[in-house]
Write a structure and sequence with these properties.
This protein has a single domain, classed as Metallo-beta-lactamase, Chain A. Helices cover about 25% and strands about 25% of the residues. It is built from seven helices and 15 strands. The strands form three sheets. A six-stranded mixed sheet has the order 1-2-3-6-8-9, with helices on one face. A six-stranded mixed sheet has the order 10-11-12-13-14-15. A three-stranded antiparallel sheet has the order 5-4-7. α4 (about 180-195) packs across α6 (about 235-250). The longest helix is centred in the first third of the chain and has 13 residues, at about 50-60. It is globular.
């Protein structure tokens, strides 16, 4: 019989991200999933108040944080995992296909310091891999589509789905980032929807669907099967891909896309210091069609 982990959610409204403190009530061992580093893009400053709040909650409950788990390399917030590791000794885990994401983005940012073997992370999870959080059983599900590296963590009766699914009234994640694929996203969602109907699903984001006045992040497999506005029962792969492709074509890039990717493919570390001792995040510049390159080279 599945155990019930203690789950506490922490919502970061500036990035609409939900991070989780997940603990075994018996052994007091715990994991933190998708932690947020507070980053002020306009000022170029970082703060640790969000991860400090999670660590304070863990300390007050007597939990020993053993893992900082990432569902993927996020494009909308910077990871707080290195800070958690520094404070607790926790290992940083992510799916093994992070190597694919590193290979995609290394040339985009000319990140010559970046190795593309995933070794910046402490552990690369494979699909179906099982591990323990205290006495609780955890299993990794490979759920690509939003990116080529997304995974979900099934911890007893709860699954943390990252950006693969949103609340049923909001739908599903975009699939137009480099390496994303709407066909694979549909199949990943069907893998999640095939779990027992009472399985609890925890989202990584919420944006309050029209008509809903509160943020929400917990649902069930049954609710996703019956009510998800994009992939409820009866929606075919072809219908989903057509919808998702049309919808994605209207979406703007996330505000923190460029800084987030540079940091998160390095397991939450910033690029190396320049000769003046300062770390910089790059903004690749692309000129629109018809703009003369030479005018900006002089």
């Amino acid at each position: 019989m599945a155990k019930h982990p203690v789950i506490r959610a922490f919502f970061d409204e500036p990035t609409n991200t939900v991070s989780y403190l997940v603990a075994d009530p018996t052994t007091k061992k715990a994991a933190i999933i998708d932690p947020v580093l507070d980053y002020d893009h306009n000022a170029g400053t970082v703060d640790t108040r969000s991860v400090e709040a999670m660590l304070k909650a863990a300390d007050e409950a007597g939990y020993n944080v053993e893992w900082a788990l990432e569902t993927h390399a996020h494009a909308d917030h910077l990871s707080g995992a290195p800070y958690i590791k520094a404070k607790t000794g926790a290992k940083i885990g992510i799916g093994e296909h992070i190597k694919d994401v590193q290979r995609i983005f290394r040339p985009i940012f000319n990140a010559t310091d970046l190795v593309t073997d995933g070794s910046d992370f402490d552990h690369l999870f494979k699909h179906g891999e099982r591990f323990k959080i205290g006495a609780m059983d955890a299993e990794v599900l490979y759920t690509p589509g939003h990116t080529p590296a997304d995974i979900s963590y099934k911890i007893e009766d709860a699954v943390f789905v990252g950006d693969t699914l949103f609340m049923p009234d909001y739908g599903t994640a975009r699939a137009d980032f480099p390496g994303g694929d709407a066909h694979r996203l549909y199949r990943s969602i069907k893998r999640l929807q095939a779990l027992p109907p009472e399985t609890r699903l925890f989202m990584c984001h919420d944006y309050k669907a029209p008509g809903r006045d509160r943020f929400a992040w917990e649902t069930t497999v049954q609710d996703q099967r019956d009510k998800n506005v994009h992939v409820r029962n009866g929606v075919t792969e072809e219908e989903f891909v057509a919808m998702r492709s049309a919808r994605d074509a209207t979406l703007s890039a996330p505000r923190l896309l460029l800084p987030s990717i540079q940091v998160n493919i390095r397991a939450g570390k910033f690029p190396p210091k320049e000769t003046n001792g300062v770390r910089y995040l790059l903004i690749p510049v692309k000129l629109k069609d018809g703009v003369t390159v030479g005018a900006f080279d002089s």
